[in-house]
């Protein structure tokens, strides 16, 4: 059996650890949440489903061609400031690239905050075709929601494979990723969450009395620099 001295020593060590760790825990008094609707577009086989699966599950899995569209969600803790936890609830529509579903895709533009137009870096033709989705998005914005634009990001996938150097001929942000290795995928979605404007956050009524692990908070937001 442990002696009284060694038990006291153990308690002292535990106390010291608690003091060291306390500043890393943040008590939450309010939660503010924003919904972010994303839509993925692009030719069949460019890797839209693989990118979303990588982001939402952390895995690269075998996929089948999407039929119509698939819906995914992911909620992330964005930041904690003055006891307010900010969360972003992503609603992600992964559309089918096959030509036969093409007439359905505009349904998913409705209320979308951002569109990820995906192409395959090994297939320059898929980048040229991405332009037709961008044109369609512009047309939709001009006709149906002239006051608000959809944030368009052109995403080149499969950078793990050999490919020719790429030029961004579009007027949009250009991001390169690999669903297979995960390169650039979390950063792509995190950046979209970080760009959510403050007005989109609303107070969540069921207040969570919880302590958040700051290491699970998006790196950029938890940094004070
Ligand atoms: N090497 C490599 N292969 C990938 C990558 N991402 C996807 N693939 C492969 O590309 C093929 C098509 O991927 P999907 O994610 O189903 O493509 P999709 O764009 O969703 O296709 P549709 O649903 O038909 O529109 C699959 O065989 C994937 O394994 C990647 O980053 N690198
Ligand atoms: Mg798919």
Return the structural class. Answer: alpha/beta
CATH topology: Rossmann fold
The beta-strand count equals: 9
What's the tally of helices?
Answer: 5
Instruction: Name the quaternary structure.
Output: single chain
What does the average pLDDT come to? 83
Q: What is the assigned CATH homologous superfamily?
A: P-loop containing nucleotide triphosphate hydrolases
Give a written overview of the molecule.
With 225 residues, the protein is α/β, with parallel strands linked by helices. The chain has a single domain, classed as Rossmann fold. It is 28% helix and 27% strand. It contains 5 helices and 9 strands. The protein has helices at residues 4-21, 48-57, 124-144, 185-194, 219-222, and strands at residues 26-27, 30-41, 69-81, 84-95, 114-120, 151-157, 173-176, 202-203, 211-212. It starts with a helix and ends with a helix. It binds guanosine-5'-triphosphate and magnesium ion. The site of guanosine-5'-triphosphate (GTP) has 21 residues, from α2.
Q: What's the topology here?
A:
Blueprint: H1 4-21, E1 26-27, E2 30-41, H2 48-57, E3 69-81, E4 84-95, E5 114-120, H3 124-144, E6 151-157, E7 173-176, H4 185-194, E8 202-203, E9 211-212, H5 219-222
Parallel strand pairs: 2-4, 2-5, 5-6, 6-7
Antiparallel strand pairs: 1-9, 2-8, 3-4
